[in-house]
Structure prediction request, 490 residues.
Amino acid sequence: VQQLGQKWVFIGHNFDAGMGVTGIFDPAKGTLDVDPEGVPSGHLIVNGRMTSGFTSFFTATSSFTGDVDLYELRFNGDAWTSSLLHSLTGLSDFSASVLWFDPPTGYLIVGYGLPGPINRWRYIDPETGSTVDTFDTSKMGTNVSFSSLHNRLISRPGFVLTLWSDGDPDEPAYEIISLDIQAKTVSTFASDVVPPFTDGTRFSYLIADQSRTLWMSALGEYAWTVHRQPNTIPGAVSLRWMLTKIMSLAGYTPDELTFDGPDWGDGGDPDPDPDPDPDPEDPPDPIDPAVDAVWVLDFLNEVYTKDGSPVTLADVIDKPARVGPSGVEILDHDSVGAVEAIGDLFIDLAALDWTIIIEWEEVVADGRTFLLGMFEELVNNDELLIDRLDSELMQAYGWGTDFRDVRPFAEGGYGLGIHKTAVTYTSAKISMSTDGTPVETNTLANFMNPMQVAFFGGRGEELSGNGTFIRKVYLHAPRDDADLPGLSVL
Prediction:
């Protein structure tokens, strides 16, 4: 399923007709139009591109001769079109093993086997159908088998998760592996994964979420197990800390305890300090984001300044009429729902050397809310984005020569209501704190071409995500990371 404006676009397989079945759900009209023979059939189908003009899906055919064709199926709001992108030959299997579209790079990622055996990866530009890169790896796996596995292996942007087996006919071992698209390398995400086969009566289910560094398994549909990678369990404490706390209840101080051996946690210090306590920390002291701000856009109180001097709202955003008592309204999944930053404000944003504080109101409980999206489309489609991915996950990234991102997680922390995020972006780093949370920083080297557009509520275009209200925006020269929790606390 993909989205186009306010419509939801579905695609599946009609086994009776040997065609692709399509469905268009229009929530505004309350209609679902189904065409049982809407598009040509494909052996593999994955979500594709979402633009303001069309949404698409990618498909791969199958054959016993080793020839596979790759298509893009587009829906523009009125009609479907099918375009042959690329043809593969000489495969050792009857179709591709991996099919995935990565929005940050704009690449269609295809993995397939060749005689040898060889695991061949191919990056394809959907605009031209041309090959961007090819390379081989020792492991590949699949993301398109076992009941729509690609929908349950939730990859981070810039990566592709697959399920790999060592092929042992008696006791096969399974792993979830991750392809780093930019680095062209694979690594293990999770090992000893439950095999995706029946035990005679039940099917083994598998869901993995790379951003949350966890995977879930179930034998049957009712009893699920959540597996987390080491050192990622929220609230986890060392054994030494726990024993010290327990002994303090019996009247022992840390000075009276001795820990022998290196495996007690916290470096094996024989005289552990029971603090810091793993209980939630006190909120940081608030820092007024209006102080020392280059730009102040207080849409609630209609205060708009640059370097302390008043500015006209129509000179800094393209839709000043959207401002109301709740702030700037971002329309819900609308082709012109976002609001563009223009004039001197855009120039300062395009410098990509700032700290920005955005206060907004979530009016949709879950799903993706774009806060600020910037885009360059003439050279490499470089992109900067700040958004709420869902009710528990924030995101900020810059995608140029590399993909540099931060994704702070807070269980149930970003749902309905008012929130505030502080993000620093410079050539050296990207940092983020939301609602006073600890700062997450990424210093991966990343060069971006000059941005051409900037939108509040859109991903570098007028097409919006969730409806929301942007209440206040402050732009600063880059602040120290230590300031971000205070700037973002409500």
Notes: Residues 231-237, 265-280 have pLDDT under 50 and may be disordered.
